[in-house]
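[Archive record]
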Amino acid sequence: MGNLYCNSRDDVRSLLEASFSADGLLLESADLGENFFDLSSGLAGELFQTFNNYGKKLALVVSDTSIYSRSFQQLVLEHQYHSSIRFFGGEDAARQWLQDKQESKLKGIQEGIQEGTEGEAS
């Protein structure tokens, strides 16, 4: 994903900043350094907490989780239905999820505007 890379806590801020221009962020395995996959480093937890705190969506494409630790595989399973952070086996599914989240958000805004204008007409 271009020049975005996550291998240290210093990278978290730049990743968050990048997510604001697209209302979410997609990272592939190649964008994730070994510290991300080593859960004892705390990097994945900090990245996830930061994106949660800011209400940003994070899609992570990791095609083969079996090459990583059991704890990492468990983390992937725990985020299977997470509202803000999800793992995907392929980029297309990840992009679709991010797009669906954006469309859902826009629909909610439009419905709120319609409800507000209907209330004014009454």
Observations:
- The radius of gyration is 17 Å.
